Amino acid sequence: MTDIPAGFLDLLTEKKPLAHVATLQPDGSPQVTPVWFDYTDGVVRINTAKGRIKARNLSAGSRVALSIVDPDNAYRYIQIRGTVTKETTDGADAHIDSLAKKYLGKDVYPWHSAKETRVIYEITPSAAQTMG
After folding, report:
1. 64-94 tens-digit pLDDT
2. Residue 63: helix, strand or coil by DSSP?
3. 92: number of CA atoms within 13 Å, CB side?
4. CATH class of the domain whose range is 6-131
5. What are the sequence ranges of the domains in the chain?
6. φ and ψ at 57, to 5 degrees?
7. Which of 14, 31, 8 is nearest to 125 (CA)?
């Protein structure tokens, strides 16, 4: 695990930027998706529904990169590289609700679907680079 530089923790804990998460497709080509996230206990957590491209590309042990740009200054950002260290459906519905609160100000994720199974991926940072 790597420490996130203190001068950039606001991007992970106070502001509401999207993280662009890069995963690898089965053929080795990259795939990038903007996602909601939170940062707790030194790990970045993202949430998606099973069956989506990023979910098909992610599992415990997957290597990923995230680019998080300051919404107030496009020339200030942090890039985090890391590994998926946990994949779970436990608490995933509550987690997406908490992300809806952070990003939309809503208590409940407005696009819940009984047809979807939500999953949380915990990403443990192994490197961080910053600019700005």
Report:
1. 999 999 999 999 999 999 999 999 999 999 9
2. strand
3. 19
4. mainly beta
5. 6-131
6. -90, -15
7. 8
